[in-house]
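Appendix B. Chain record.
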Amino acid sequence: MNAAGSSRVTIVVVQRERFSTTKQSLESLFQHTRPPFELIYVDGGSPRRIARYLSAESERRGFRLIQLPYHLPPHTARKMAATLAVTPYIVFLDNDVIVSPDWLEALVECAEATGADAVTPLICVNEPLHTMVHTAGGVARICEESGQRRFEEVMRFDGRPVSDVKDQLKREPTGLIEFHGVLVRRSVFERFGPLDEAYLATSEHLDFCLTVNQRPGSIYFEPGSVITYLAPPPITFADLPYYTLRWSDEWALVSEQHFYRKWNAEYTDRVVRFSVQHRRLGLQRLRRAALSIVGWRRSHRFSDWLDATLIGMAKRRDLRAVGKSIAKDATMPCSEHRN
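Structure tokens predicted for this chain:
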């Protein structure tokens, strides 16, 4: 993919919440990213069709593929890949992101010009691509109010058309990144420590922002780099077990409780409530049909049962996969394709 030792960037791709966007995202990456760059792709528990596709693409394109037969929290996958990177910069991307031309060059140029520890692109959401803002940087900070520490987050221009805010977008310091896509200096991990994999589902990006900004470090917003996050729905049947586990109450509560303890801030359940709403995008039509047939209370009981069933399926699958991996080779619990 590039001459050995010539690349300054390692792109790390992990699954966010679905697998069905894998092909569209990877093809976008190779179409709009000029070499040289390294690519480490972590695939945890994808459906067989997707796993075969990634294996074939790894062989054909020459990138490093780490495949595990069980599901991984996204931040665990990021940390795993980050420890393998040797380039000055690491760019984290989710597998449901579509990039635009020159996106990578703009991030690197910003980091070189400003000395930033991290650079966030303009992150858009859904189709038409690159037209609706998800976040253009923003705020992530702890505020002292009446003797209490409260966390504040602001996603700048969220939900606004890019055309409406284009004149206000400029390269500048910011307080917020999201792991949909972000460039990070590898030296950040040497200075501040590795990514905190206690975050199973939520707030990992907020933890990263607070860690960098308090040291102090610097985060920049670079509007010359534009990517788009493909938010669900649709959610395929093959996606459902991981998607439901990814947004389960268990993973969300563990993550949120860890975040508020770590930063000594007053706990709120806003992200946990978001996780429930987001999780229930899976089988949305079935849930709506249940609501119309049996009413609000019983339909919620049905949704709880449905979620528990899907999460149980994912956990049993992962346990079987772990058991088989250990039985096959107790010292190497994953298969890795290196090219």
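Further analysis of this model is presented in Appendix C.
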